[in-house]
Design brief:
about 160 residues, alpha+beta, Aminopeptidase
């Protein structure tokens, strides 16, 4: 398995992976809107042979420092719980760090995302439509430069359920 940048030719396969992983199209539609709006910073795929088996996206956020949103991460059902999602997330965080981003926010299960350095306490000082125990932040390369303020996800997230 390799992790690489998503290519235009991967889009249909990425959509299939996301729909299969979530058993609905909402997250796949989100990915399409983020692309259409130009808010995608990193879009990575996991490929085994010639098959796309996983995908992760990092998009721009409005924040008081250079911050990204991690969402969604998807792996085909038959490859879940085999480390594919973890590799995608770790590779994405490494790429974000190397390219000068200060932090990443994610909305999800703290038990799962803590292993990557995400912490609800780091996000607690930020006002957001998604504020609460499932909003977490991860500092890239040290501490977050600012510990409070207002953050906003890209407009494609508006109304997402």
């Amino acid at each position: 398995m390799i992790i690489r940048d998503e290519q235009a030719a991967d889009r249909a396969a990425v959509r299939r992976v996301i729909v299969a992983a979530f058993a609905r199209a909402i997250e796949a539609d989100l990915v399409d809107r983020l692309r259409d709006d130009g808010d995608v910073v990193l879009s990575l795929v996991a490929v085994d042979g010639d098959q796309v088996i996983g995908h992760v996206m990092f998009s721009r956020m409005d924040a008081p420092f250079r911050a990204l949103a991690l969402a969604p991460v998807a792996v085909t059902p038959e490859r879940q719980r085999a480390g594919v999602g973890s590799r995608l997330i770790r590779d994405g965080l490494d790429r974000a760090r190397v390219t000068g981003w200060d932090g990443v926010f994610v909305l999800g299960d703290p038990h799962y995302y803590r292993r990557f350095g995400f912490d609800p306490a780091l996000a607690r000082g930020f006002a957001s439509a998604y504020a609460g125990p499932h909003l977490m932040a991860c500092a890239l390369g040290g501490a977050l430069p600012i510990r409070d303020g207002t953050i906003a996800y890209a407009s494609a997230f508006t109304g997402l359920t």
